[in-house]
Every structure is written in C-alpha cells, then in structure tokens.
Amino acid sequence: MANDVLTNTGESATVSPGLRGIVSDWSSDKQAFEVPWGKAMMWIFLLSDTFIFGVFLSSYMTVRMSTVEPWPIPSEVFALTIGGQSIPLILIAIMTFVLISSSGTMAMAVNFGYRRDRAKTAALMLATAALGAAFVSMQAFEWTKLIHEGVRPWGNPWGAPQFGSTFFMITGFHGLHVSVGVIYLSIVATKVWRGDYERKGNYQIVEITGLYWHFVDLVWVFIFALFYLW
Amino acid sequence: MAYVAIADRDHEQELHHPKSFVTKYIWSQDHKVIAIQYGITATLIGLVALVLSGMMRLQLGFPDTFSFIAPYDYYQFITMHGMIMVIYLLTALFLGGFGNYLIPLMLGARDMVFPYLNMLSFWVYLLAVLVLVASFFVPGGPTGAGWTLYPPQAILPGTPGAGWGIVFMLASLAIFIVAFTMGGLNYVVTVLQARTRGMTLMRMPLSIWGIFMATVLGLLAFPALFVSAVMMTLDKLLGTSFFMPAIMSMGQQLDYDGGSPVLFQHLFWFFGHPEVYIVALPAFGIVSDLLATHARKNIFGYRMMVWAILAIGGISFVVWAHHMYVSGMNPYFGFFFATTTLIIAVPTAIKVYNWVLTLWKGNIHLTVPMLFAIGFIFTFVHGGLTGLFLGNVSVDVPLSDTYFVVGHFHMVMGVSPIMVMFGAIYHWYPKITGRMLNTTLGRIHFWGTFLGTYAIYLPMHYLGFLGVPRRYYALGNTDFIPESAMTLNAGITISALIVGVIQLVFLYNIISSLFKGEKAGPNPWRAVTLEWQTPDTPPKHGNWGPELPVVYRWAYDYSVPGAAEDFIPQNHPDDETTGMVHKT
Amino acid sequence: MALAVALVLLVVGSVLFHFLSPWWFTPIASNWGTIDDTVILTFWVTGAVFIAVNLFMAYCVIRYRHKKGQLAHYEPENKKLEWWLTGLTTLGVVAMLAPGLFVWAKFINVPEDASVFEAVGQQWNWSYRFPGKDGVLGTVDPANITIDNPFGMNPDDPNGQDDILVSSPEVHLPLNKPVKVLLRATDVLHNFAVAQFRVKMDMVPGLVTYFWFTPTRTGTFEVLCEELCGLGHHTMRGNVVIDEEEDFQAWLNSNPTYAETQAQTGGDAEAGAALYAVCLACHGTEGEGNIALNSPKISGQDDWYLIRQLKYFKGGIRGSDEDDVFGRQMAPMAAILPDDAAIKNVVAYIETLADNPASATIDGDAARGRDIFSTCGACHGLDGQGIWSLKAPRLAGMTDWYMVTQLKNFKHGIRGTHAGDMYGGQMGAMARILTDDQAINDVIAYINTLDETVARN
Ligand code: HEA
Ligand code: HEA
Ligand code: CUA
Ligand SMILES: [Cu+2]
Questions:
Q1: Any chain C CB within 8 A of the CB of B525?
Q2: A230, B71, C25, C382: which has the highest count of C-beta atoms within 10 A?
Q3: Binary contact (A59, B242; C-beta < 8 A)
C-alpha cells in the first residue's frame, strides 16, 4: 500500500510500508521527528544518559561478580526496624512508591499543560517536585543510616567493599538527577504560574520536563531491581 | 502524513543579535564564530602535542643524548601527545570546528538550534583544555599512564603523575564530555530538525553525514569514558575498588580488594573504538565532498556511501575488544570480535572504492585540497589494511603492543584525517575569510607532509615486525633486534622533525593570507553545496539574509550533461537541467 | 602528474622496501609457524589490494586530469559494479579471517600433555614458579607477600610446599615439550612477551591468564614486558633459556622449593663477626667505608642487597670486567667466604653495625638533581631508602663518591652487562639517562639532601 505525498518542493514522494517506508519517510523533506527542537534534544540527551546509567549498572554487575568477598544480603542491609520489628526493604518500597506517584502527577501536569490550564499545571508540577524532594530526603535518610552502620565507599562490615562504592555512586548519581529534576520542575512551575508560556503560546517545556522526569523514574526501577532485589 | 515545511519553522529560531565587539567575537552565539574559536583552540593545543611528538622522536632516534628527556618525562610526553591529538585536537576540530561551521551552512539553517548552548559548549571545552594544561604544572606533572590510562598503574606510584596529574586528566576528560554533549546535542538536532526546505536527508552532503554520525557515536560512546573516569577518580581519591584488585605496590600491601582492571579496559575501548571513528567519519564525509568538487564529478554511489557511514557507525560499537586480544579477557571473545572487526572492512572498502571511482572518468583539478584528498586515500588505504592484520586475532598476537600498532594508527589516524583536515582548511578558508590561501605554499606543505609522514610511518611497521615494543623509552640492548633498527629510528626522527617544521609553512600561509591573500569571491571552487551560495562572503550573522534558501537537488550535480555550466548549485531551481533528482 | 608519479613510486617503493629491507620477524623458535603463515597470507591479500587501489588511482589522476573542454562523466551509481566489489572484498575478508580463527582456536586450547609453570610479573622484574613433584601449584594471595615470601605463597597449602621458586628473571624450559604458561601479576598490568615464540599475554593482578607454546630451538630468548607498567617498563627484561631435558632438570633442581626457602634461617651475626675481620681492613670497623681505599659504606645497606652482591662478586658476575678496577679488588675478597651460610652470617653482622650517614663529598646542583631523581625514586623510593620488592638498594646516606663511580660504570657498561647480572641491566639502562657527568653530580647532590634520619621500614 503506497500513498503519494507532496514534499515541500512540490515533488511527489512515495511512502510505502515496511522498512522501505521507514527509510523514505525519514529521508523525505521534513523534520525527522514531528516535535519541537527542545523535545528532540531532550530525547537525544536521554538516550545518551541511558548509556551513562547503562554503563554504571553493567559495571556494578561486573564488580559484583569480580569481587572476592561475599556480597552483603540486601534484605538485611536495607531493613528498617520499626516498633521492634525488622521489616526488609520497607523504606525502599515507600521511596519507590513515592517516585512512581510523582510520575503520575507529572503525567497529569502534562495533560493539563495541553489544555493550557495554568494553575493546575503549575500545582501538579509543584506536587511532583515535592514528591521528588521527599524521595531525595528519604534517600538521604537511608545514606545516613548506612553510614552509621559503618558502610563506606571503600568498605563495610559485611563483605565486599564494592557494595558501598557502587551503592553510593549509583544512587548518588541518580539522586543527583532527581535533585536537578526538582530544581528544574520548580523553575518551570514558577514560570508556568507567572504565565510566561501563556504569552509564548505553548507549554512544550512542561512536556519536556515530563520526559526527563519519567526517565529518571524509569532508571530508578532498574536500580531498584538490581540493587535491592538481586 | 502531513509534511511540515522545515523552512516554516524559521520563527522557532531565537537568534541572538550581537551588538558589541564582545558579544560578536567573544561571547558569541554565532556558529561560525564558535567554530573558529574551537578551531583556534584545538590548533594551539594540537601544536603542543606536535612539539611533544618531536621531543619523543628525539629521544627514540637519539637515545642517551638529551638530558631533558628522562623516562619520567617521556611517558608523560606520549600520554599527553596521544590524548591531545585524539580528543582535544581531532575530535574538537572536526566536530566543534568543522561541524559547527558547516552544519548550518550546508543545511541552509540560520544557526544551530540552540545557539546559547552551543556557545557554552565552546567555553566548557576551553575549560577542559585549561585543566589539561594545568596538569603540566601540578606537583609531579601530568599523568604518564599512556593515553589509555589503564589502572592499576595509572593511580599508583611508579607511574609519572600518579598523584595530581591523573586527577586533572580525568577531570579534564569529564569536562570535555560535558562540552561535547552540549555541542553534540545541537549538531544532531540541527541535522534532524532544522534543514531548509527541500534538503532531505538523502540530499545532504556527505560531510554532514559523516559529522552527524560521528556526533551520534560520540553521544553514545563518551558516557563509557565519563563513567570510567568517575570510577577511577573514586578509586584514586576515596579508595574504592572498582578497578583495583588486592595488590602490593612498592613492597607494601594496599587497601584495595576485588576490583577488575579488565573492566576498565572494556569500558575504555567501548568508548575508544567508536572514538577512532568519531575522528574518521567526519574525515570520510569531508573528503567525499572535496573529491567531488575538485574532480567536477558527482560522488560515486552516494546512497551506498550513506549506508556505509551508518553501517560503520553501528558496527563500531561491537568491535571494541579487538584492542584487548592479549589483555587476559576470556579468550573465546576473540572469535566474535575478530569477525566483527573484519566485517567493518567491507563498508569501509566500499567507501574507498567509491572515492577512487569518483576520480575515474572525472575532470580532475589538482588543486591543493585535491592533493590532500588523494593523499588521504593513499594513507588511509595503507592504514586500514594494516588494521586488518591487527583485527585478525591470531595475527595480532605477535604484533600487538609493538610499533606495528603505532604505525597502523598513525597512518589511519595521525595522517589520513590530518590530511583531510588540511584539505578542508584549504577548501573552506576562502569562505571563512574571503581570501584564498597561497597555492605554492600549499603545495610545499602538501608534499612535505605527505611524503614526510609516509617516511615516518611506513618503517614503523617493520620495527613492529622486528618486535620493537611501543611505549619504550629506549630499546637498550635487546639481543634479537639488530643495530640497524636504531638507524631506522634515527631516520624516522629526522623525517618527523622535517614534517614538524613544514607545518610552519602552513601556519605562515594561514596568517599571511588573512591579510595578503587573493580575494576569493563567493564560490571560488564553483561548488554546488549551499555554503557557497550565501549572499555574503564570509557569511553574515544569520547566514542567509531575509530568505532561507530552498533546495532542489542533491549535493553532487557536477558536469550534468546538457547543463550550461559544469555545476548546478543545490538551490538552483531550473528543472530542465536536473540531473539525478534524488527521489525517496 | 607529479602526484601520479609519486603514487606509483610510493607503491613500488613500499613493495621494494618490504622485500629488500632487512627488517622482518626474528627467526621463529616455537610451534607457532602458523601465526607467521597467517601474517604472510594477510600480506598477500592486503598487498594486492594496496597495489591495485593505488595504481588505479594513479591511472585516474593521469588519464582524467583536467584538460580544456573536458567534462566529467555523469554517473551517480553503478549497482552492478558496487555489488561486485563488495562481493570480492567479502571474499578477501573471509580468506584472511577463516585461517586466522583456526589458528586462534589452536592458540587458546592447550594440549593435554602440556606441562605448567607460572610466570609472575611485578614492577619491574620477573620470577617463576614450577609445581614441583606433585604437579600442582599451591595457592597464593597477594596479602601474604613479604620479603621472605615474595611469591605470596599460602603457608598452609600442602600443594605449595614443593613448589619450586625461581627468584630470578631467567627461566629454563625443556626443548620440544609443550608448556602452558600461567601468568600472574602482583602490582600492576604487565605483559609477558617473547618475540621468537610469537606469544604474548597480559598479566593482570587479580587474574591468572595463560598461553601455551612448544619451544623448537635451544638458546636464550629475551622476555620483554609489553604493557606499560610505569617508569621501569622498558627495563623489565628476562630470559627464557631453552635446554635439553637433562640440563633443564639439573637447572630446575638447583632452585629451592617453597618449604626449603621457609626452612632457611637467618644469618648468625656472631659467626659473621669473625668473618668480618677481612672486610674490616677496607670497609672500616663500623662498615663506614673508606674513600682512600675506594671502599663504600656498607653499614645500613639492606641485607638482601648485600647478600646478592656478595654472591655476584663471588660468582664472577660483578667485579670481573676488565675496566671495573675496584670491583676486581672486591671479587677475591668475596671469594674467601666459603658458602652461602658464610655470606649470610657476615651480612647479619654488618646489619648490627652503627649506621651513620656518610659525609657529602660531591658538589652538584641539587635542584636539577631533584628532577632527575623523579625517575630514580620510582625504584629506590622517593626517600632514597631502597625498596626490596623492586630489588633497588638504599642510596640516601650512603657514600656519594661510590655512587658516582658506579653510575659511570653502569652507564658505560662496565657493570650490569654480565649475562648473570639479573638486575644490573636495569640499572644500566637507567644510568644512561644521565647524559653527562654534571647530571650525575647533580643527582648525587640531591640524594645527599635526602633526610638520612627517615625511619627505615
Ligand atoms: C582513525 C582512526 C582509526 C581507524 C579508522 C582504524 C581502523 C581500523 N583499525 Fe585501528 N586503531 C586506531 C585507530 C584507528 N583504527 C588506534 C588509535 C589504535 C591504537 C590505540 C592504542 O592502543 O593506543 C588502533 C588499534 C587497532 C587495533 C588494536 C591493536 C592492538 O593494540 O593490538 C586493531 C585490532 O583489531 C585495529 C583494527 C582496525 C581495523 C580492522 C580498522 C578498519 O576500520 C580499517 C578498515 C579499512 C580498510 C580495510 C581499508 C580500505 C579497504 C580496502 C581498500 C579494501 C579492502 C580489501 C579487502 C579486505 C580484501 N586497530
Ligand atoms: C591524531 C593523532 C596523532 C597524530 C597526528 C600524531 C602525530 C605524531 N605522532 Fe603520535 N601518537 C598518537 C596519536 C597521534 N600522533 C597516539 C594516540 C599515540 C599513543 C600514545 C600512547 O601510547 O599512549 C601516539 C604515540 C606516538 C609514538 C609512540 C610512542 C611510544 O609508544 O613510545 C610516536 C613515536 O614515534 C609518535 C610519533 C608521532 C609523530 C612524529 C607525529 C607527528 O609529528 C607526525 C606529523 C604529523 C603532522 C605534521 C600533523 C600534525 C598536525 C597537527 C598536530 C595540527 C597542528 C596544527 C597546525 C599545524 C595548524 N606518536
Ligand atoms: Cu612490566 Cu611493562
Ligand atoms: Cu579499534
């Protein structure tokens, strides 16, 4: 099934299905992606960032295998004693829940952004930022707890020194992403509130911020699975 | 499917309007100015690397003669020489320099999509260079761990600069990567989203394809270097054990345990191999345009050329361990990586054939850019073919870590892209400055560089066969290596010094032509691509005056039968003389 | 035109250079002739491509050079031609790759009957270990490494007790017997390479790597380190001596087992005191040295170093060179010591002598010397106190005029060139960085400024 389309210079180009279709679509006279520049740039940046986290995580897996000492048991290390009872992974469950919820509020913010609902968009973005901040604080709490228990980047009481080093490095790098996201969200939310984008006539930036935020969440899922569940 | 006219997005560009000298030439957001800033910085730091190579050659050619080159210095020299040449000169010059200059002009855009970010990219790059330079002045001097920076030695005493030097080096690399990412995002988005009306992807000049693909490689490969730099810094400063197993150093046990030195090598080469194509692909692209223009003939097999660039880029991510055949990794990897490595020869071979076939039945003008382009083909074929020795895992065993490898990568990286770089400067200088470079001086420069570098690097392969190891401060008394090898080494040194001096001719030419060069006119080479069709030469801020150009044909309509002239610019609308209208 | 001629000349020149120049692989001494064959095969394939592509290009340059009124041919692509070329190239690639992979399969699969030994790399020398009677190498751990257990042997491992330890950069192997070399490093990366065997492999701390080969020729073959491992990289040399079986066994048995090295006792200083009476005449009652007699200070010098040098003097490895005037005086003195036990005893006594820093007699520019010493310090320690694992003796606080003499001797090949002088060669290579006498004086002047009271470790 081929359909003819007119290109900008008035030539007709044939768009056919399948691989050829993709090629001819890409090489036709238009932008490669039907999106604003900023959004395209965010996509590509996130692709690059994916490689950063990918390398971090695969290095983590490698040293976990290369190390000669036993790996500390996550369910014990990451347990929290509440009311005299040790509950494994409880903090991390809450953290994950908070972060996933923040993705929800972000999605809603984007939605209201499409509808140009200034107040709701800003409010939801601020809510997202608040959830993000909560996440970072809980992470800070967890770090403090681990440091009190003697975990250091260069060693810990339970075994492989790489446990502490990869943990601090990777959650730290992720936490940095979340913190940057919180700042970014707050700035954009303020501008939305002030009506800067109303004047410009588009709310793209909200969507772009959303992309970044969802990405940071997604990365967390992998970190969660690899650090806490493995 | 609705086609959104690209040119209709002209309004999306928030062009910054410079007013003062400072905003025009220093804190400039104009891609052309940024390109020149990149170019000058890269050249200056490149000259440092060139001088270092001269010092290295003095030591190798005439050992025990120069008191100012002890092993301590020598290993610092080779490290800085390699690192500067690969990253701070070639990567920066091809992408930051030529990429910045050519992408908007060749695609008919007013500027990069985010000029402010583009400007930041240069300043951060400059910071990276300054940190690198600063490492020469810290206690202990710059690192001497080799440009591959392998741990454990890179951060242990016994290696020069294992204190501050290595930390500065890693910091500088991390900063460079930030700069590159800012620039790279711009280049990629500009190519994908900001082409002018009619400039389809398959009408883009190959220069753009090469630069584009190289940038994509950079965005995906630099993360590995970034992460390994972070981890090594932590190993060094905090005592983590990512790359450090339990070891003893200088008679004492260290506190490291359980890390993996081979992991670093994997990460480094996961970056490092794409990196060599980051250097090569822009050269591939640019040389295609030089050949077509100066042979007055369309590039042969354009579509194959594009596919070859894409294929090389893709495959380059799965060949990295060919640098590690004798590194102690699982030997079974050898089968896989040897196969992928040799497969890469096929798309590369297509490119070589198509360059040569572009000359075939052409109308060859032996201008200075053309001389360099042909010099490129010759040296690249030589270097590429020696790469096949190294890629074939069992053949690599006797040759790895010898001067054969040094010969290979200088031929393929230290000469051939450099040839293109020079050719490109002779080619675009008239557009950049409005004046021609002096041809006689250009010819002297070409002949000196071409013959001189061949005399440097051809013999190196044979030193490699003899078994002369690389990264040796001095060969000393080595039974199985004949005395005559030293004569050869001395000869190499003499050629290297001559070639180094000849670069002064080039520098003189560049500077004096700025003032005395013949006026160029807008299109001295009678080329078809858009950058030659600008209303002003050199192009003004915003490049195109009130209207963006519209493109009607591919970038290679030279010598079209029946046309009035032997070239039809890309923005020429006359349909009757359309050669190959590039459909799809 | 000049360009076309140049291209042709370069192609012809390269081919001639290849065939006529004397520079090529050293004659092979192992079973890996197949590697050489694949190299040659690769040469033929790539050589043909090199010649064809460049000559064709030269032809184009001549034939299609711009002339007035000439127009290029307009031909955007030629699918058929492109596919042909792609096909031929693929064929060429397969022709090189397939044999290469077969050889690799052989290279990494060690034959059943191969014997095993271990080569250990550390900055910047080699040592070796053979499995002993039980045929099994004992376990090792870098944490066990001490001056008395340089291999880091696990003292509780029964398999290790009979391991034969070769604390020398020279190893012997039997002719025509396949051998698997296990490679290990204790500090940084190294690479064990022997050009004549066509083998090399990195040594990685924390890993054991390997390769195998069968020596096919007797003789001495040089081992080079081919992975940058720091300042001494280019001086990290060793030897593989290929012997007939009997010679090999004799050599092997002359090396101690781990258990034997552990059973050895230290020297007896009291017994040494009597022996020292001979030394006293020249080196002084406190071993402080005597410039008039050209005898250096020996008190305060590391015991392992003194033992090694006494053995060398006794064995004619040091002090036998015609031009080593003072060394020739020492050699007969060392010969008086009847056996290793006596050497140990006298050294034990020397260790009890008072260690007073020698006085400075050399003038030089210590600031300049400091730069030079950044290289020396890598082995001798930045404090000049010597580092046992690098086999480098103490310099700080020792007699400076003696060091000047010896630096000159090393530099001119009077010391350090004897085949049996396993560590002197390294110093010889390093001494050559001192390009003139001024540099020697400068570096010694700097050594004189190093704090002699730094605690010894
Ligand atoms: C611009 C840079 C560049 C380029 C393009 C290449 C291209 C290639 N390189 Fe090279 N390489 C380096 C830069 C580069 N290299 C550097 C810097 C190092 C050393 C790093 C270090 O250790 O410091 C290195 C090291 C290196 C090694 C590691 C050696 C070792 O350390 O032991 C290997 C091994 O496989 C290798 C292989 C190849 C191959 C197969 C290609 C191929 O892409 C070449 C393909 C090209 C051709 C093949 C020629 C054209 C083809 C024809 C004309 C037709 C061919 C016909 C037939 C095949 C029949 N290179
Ligand atoms: C692009 C990369 C590049 C370039 C151009 C060069 C150029 C040269 N290189 Fe370099 N070299 C490397 C990359 C490069 N090198 C790398 C990666 C290593 C490995 C380091 C390591 O082992 O860690 C190395 C190592 C290396 C060694 C091996 C050292 C050893 O193993 O002990 C030697 C020895 O001769 C050497 C020599 C030279 C010489 C004589 C030149 C030149 O002088 C030859 C002539 C070249 C030119 C004339 C062009 C130069 C142009 C410029 C620099 C731009 C300046 C701008 C203007 C003039 C406007 N180099
Ligand atoms: Cu050991 Cu180089
Ligand atoms: Cu590579």
A1: no
A2: B71
A3: yes
